[in-house]
Amino acid sequence: MSFFKRLFSSEKKETLDKGLEKSKESFFDKLSKAVAGKSKVDDDVLDNLEDILITSDVGVNTTLKIINRIEKRVAEDKYLGTDELNKILREEISGLLSETKSGEATEFDVPKDKKPYVIMVVGVNGVGKTTTIGKLAYQFKKAGHNVVLGAADTFRAAAIDQLQIWADRVQVPIVKQQMGSDPASVAFDTLESAVAQNADVVIIDTAGRLHNKVNLMNELTKVKRVMQKVIGDAPHDVMLVLDGSTGQNAFEQAKQFTAATEVSSLAVTKLDGTAKGGVVIGISDQFQIPVKYIGVGEGIEDLQVFNKYEFVDSFFK
User: Fold this and answer.
1) pLDDT at residue number 65
2) If residue 29 lies in a helix (H) or strand (E), which one and from where to where?
3) Rounded distance, CA 274 to CA 6, Å?
4) Residue 129 among known ligand-binding residues
5) Using CA atoms, how far apart are residues 58 and 209, in angstroms rounded to an integer?
6) Which reaction does this chain catalyze (predicted)?
7) Could you tell me the pTM of the whole model?
8) 123 is in an annotated binding site
9) Is 279 within any annotated ligand binding site?
10) Number of Cα atoms under 13 Å in the Cβ half of residue 277
């Protein structure tokens, strides 16, 4: 199916276009300099393109895959003009993303056979974790789902307070305890409350400190084990939130968290204020964990379901 048959609403598409503006401008500024004075795609152009993709935070391994694909095209076609490079890049990157698990959905929805559907959110402090939870709660509620939040990041009082602010703003119930409480206890209470309220979606916040892998693994394992006393197969989604503006640091965080727990989806935030939007391509390819949501603005509506076709279309528009 073509890119253009998978369009969001025009308003969402405009937000996505605007959110990726800095990444796009930076990328194509470098690309135009790389092909200046060149009439065809040769080894020099490919070497420059490799540097551009790496410095755009696509990542080394994913960059090499893209370059190899383009080299094959060059070998087959014998002569490729530099004016075709944009089109070729678009096709090869979309082809690469088509092989990943990311970005087929277009709506904020949950499986009908999981009620309540339990999302446990992980990630370091400062990546936009609490904001993502708040915006996600808003979008799920807007889609007609009953949502309950759980403030299981009990390590910081600010985390509980911030989640309370979002719960008030979105007008959804929140379950919380005092700072320093057992996170697993908060998660247990949240699920019991959600079942009693016949909730559709539960979103559990967890501590954002990146302590050593063993402690992180033990804590998250305990939270999951205690949740399963209420709902046998909870959590249904372990979502890792990454700050897209940190580029390669986001890769490192993804490595550490995927080593510590079974991450099943990703949300990449703060793409609107950065030229590092290429990180979504690399993370989606390298970790083979679905990128479900992207943050492309500060507004409450600016958390979007990630659709790879739309993403590539906006990036290369």
Assistant:
1) 94
2) helix 21-34
3) 25
4) yes
5) 26
6) GTP + H2O = GDP + phosphate + H(+)
7) 0.90
8) yes
9) no
10) 29
Q: Considering only residues 6 and 261, tell me which one the structure prediction assigns the higher pLDDT.
A: 261
Burial zone of 235 (CB within 10 Å; 0-12 exposed, 13-18 middle, 19+ buried): buried
Check whether 128 is labelled as a binding-site residue: yes
Consult the annotation and say whether 269 binds a ligand: yes
Asked if 311 contacts 102 with a C-beta cutoff of 8 angstroms, the reply is no
Is 220 labelled as part of a ligand binding site?
Answer: no
Could you write out the three-class secondary structure of 138-202? HHHHHCCCCEEEEEECCCCHHHHHHHHHHHHHHCCCEECCCCCCCHHHHHHHHHHHHHHCCCCEE
Q: What is the CA angle 47-36-89, rounded to 5?
A: 55
- Is the Cα dihedral 208, 127, 305, 262 positive or negative? negative
d(CA 293, CA 312): 15
Copy the structure tokens of residue 169: 């703003």
Q: Is 136 annotated as a binding residue?
A: no
Write the pLDDT tens digit of every residue in 217-272.
888 999 999 999 999 999 999 999 999 999 889 998 898 888 888 999 999 999 99
Digit-coded pLDDT (tens) for 30-75: 888 888 888 888 889 899 999 999 988 999 999 999 999 999 988 8
